[in-house]
UniProtKB/TrEMBL annotation:
Classification lineage: Bacteria, Pseudomonadati, Campylobacterota, Epsilonproteobacteria, Campylobacterales
InterPro entries: G6P_DH, G6P_DH_AS, G6P_DH_C, G6P_DH_NAD-bd, NAD(P)-bd_dom_sf
UniProt binding sites for NADP(+): D82, L83, K133
Catalytic class of the enzyme: oxidoreductase
Associated pathway: Carbohydrate degradation; pentose phosphate pathway; D-ribulose 5-phosphate from D-glucose 6-phosphate (oxidative stage): step 1/3
PROSITE patterns listed in its UniProt record: G6P_DEHYDROGENASE
Catalytic activity: D-glucose 6-phosphate + NADP(+) = 6-phospho-D-glucono-1,5-lactone + NADPH + H(+)
This enzyme's EC code(s): 1.1.1.49
A family per Pfam: G6PD_C
Active site (UniProt): H225 (proton acceptor)
Descriptive protein name: Glucose-6-phosphate 1-dehydrogenase
Keyword Oxidoreductase belongs to the record: yes
UniProt keyword terms in alphabetical order: Carbohydrate metabolism, Glucose metabolism, NADP, Oxidoreductase
Annotated Glucose-6-phosphate dehydrogenase NAD-binding domain residues: 7-172
Length: 440
């Protein structure tokens, strides 16, 4: 049994209830023994907090074993904490040799929380901090937050989460080419016509309108999850696993900035409107009725990288799409037609052969992403977490797009719930005589 002390900031929030507590519970069943100090602003007692948590646990943990849950929750206490009040931080204890402070809070509170933690001495080397994405809302805010955090915590104490990096199916992208040299040869500029990355969700913004509306699909999905998938799909095949962060950084730095003309013709933004009995985005709870926030984005980009010269990448992500699907499609110049790597809902690899249909293999999706990442933090392995430089490189690519939207260079296009985004997203490929792999 490995012991650790876990301080969870933002413990009453949606992410904590839906993902982090269930992951900690599963990790405890796999042998971790966490004592958990749950913190949030609400003035609750521990029994009151546990009441709330128990209800949500029934909802989010499949076939929950009541006695295992009781053992787990016996190690949870609740401390009311206002992130801006230094006084409140004095109640926290972090003497355990393996203490983890998880920031499941809005990024605008990261810097203040770090200052307060440091002011009460909670930045000693036994402490690791876990920061949820998105880190900032653009390059400047990301740098400011990172600089502030860096004044109080050393790089080896900081774990910047992108939960897609905890998915076995995403991690396998590394092994796809690394362990299969014949594929590594095929999946490069010599044979590939282009690559597609799709992250499609049937879900809307659910109860997260307050978080999502200032964010949008570009910041919420593309800047992080999608660029990480792209990076893992394109890093050189022969590098050792411990060098993946550096290799991903090289790819992210090689993203060719979009020219003004490309910003206009190669980027599509959309917003869902009511359909099939479901609300449109601007009718969702906590969303501004005149919101100009995009719930869909599609774009074409290239890498300025010796191995990927001339290979276009098409990325698209959207909420309230016709299907839920996370997929990378390597489309060849000639037969075989395509190698399709599906990350979700079921991890699989499919090779489409000319005149022979497809060879498909279903792969194990493995343990839950948050559980895996929590165990990696406990073990002190930073490899599946982002380095600050990766985030900055990703923001550097995304910033001009945000700016162009701010200037209304491209219109915000409506698409109906249950579709695959605005027509312009199809035209983006049609203009190059190409087609999205999954479409209606
Ligand atoms: C989160 C986004 O990072 O990822 C959500 O904030 C999105 O908007 C979610 O729904 C998707 O994650 P998954 O694991 O369900 O594909």
């Amino acid at each position: 049994m490995q012991e650790c002390h876990f301080i969870l900031l933002g413990a009453t929030g949606d992410l904590a209830m839906r993902k982090i507590f269930p992951a900690l519970f599963r990790a405890s069943q796999a042998g971790l023994k966490p004592s958990i100090c749950a913190c949030a602003k609400s003035p609750l007692s521990t029994p009151e907090f546990l009441d709330k948590l128990n209800t949500r646990a029934q909802e989010y943990i499949k076939s929950l074993d009541p006695s295992a849950w009781e053992d787990f929750s016996a190690n949870i206490s609740y401390t009311p904490l206002d992130l801006t009040r230094l006084e409140d931080f004095k109640a926290l204890q972090a003497t355990h040799p393996n203490t983890i402070i998880y920031f499941s809070i809005a990024p605008e509170f990261f810097a203040k929380a770090c200052q307060n933690l440091a002011a009460v001495g909670l930045n000693t080397p036994n402490i690791k901090i876990v920061l949820e994405k998105p880190l900032g809302t653009d390059l400047k805010s990301c740098q400011e937050i990172c600089q502030e955090i860096g004044q109080h915590f050393k790089e080896e104490q900081i774990y910047r989460i992108d939960h897609y990096l905890g998915k076995q199916s995403v991690h396998n992208l590394f092994y796809l080419r690394h362990n299969n040299p014949f594929l590594a040869g095929l999946l490069g500029a010599n044979y590939l016509d282009h690559v597609q990355v799709s992250v499609l969700e049937t879900l809307g913004v659910e109860s997260r309108g307050g978080f999502y509306d200032p964010m949008g699909a570009l910041r919420d999905m593309l800047q992080n999850h999608m660029l990480q998938i792209l990076a893992l799909s394109t890093i050189p095949a022969n590098i050792p696993i411990e060098r993946t962060r550096q290799a991903k950084l090289e790819i992210l730095k090689s993203l060719k900035p979009l020219s003004r003309a490309a910003l206009k013709s190669q980027v599509v933004r959309g917003q869902y409107i009511a359909g099939g009995g479901l609300k449109g985005y601007t009718e969702e709870e906590q969303v501004n009725h005149n919101s100009q926030t995009e719930t869909f984005v599609a774009l074409k980009l290239e890498l300025d990288h010796p191995s990927w010269q001339g290979v276009p990448f098409y990325l698209r992500t959207g909420k309230r799409m016709g299907i839920s699907l996370v997929q990378v499609v390597f489309v060849f110049k000639g037969p075989p037609q395509a190698l399709v790597y599906t990350i979700q809902p079921q991890c699989s690899l499919e090779l489409q052969l000319q005149g022979m249909g497809a060879l498909k293999s279903t792969l194990d999706s493995g343990m839950d992403a948050y559980e895996r990442l929590i165990l990696e933090v406990v073990a002190g392995n930073q490899a599946p977490f982002n380095h600050q430089d990766e985030l900055e490189a990703a923001w550097s690519f995304v910033d001009p797009i945000l700016q162009s939207w701010h200037e209304n260079l491209t219109p915000l296009l409506p698409y109906t719930v249950g579709s695959f985004g605005p027509q312009a997203a199809f035209d983006l490929l049609h203009q190059d005589n190409r087609e999205w792999f999954a479409h209606v």
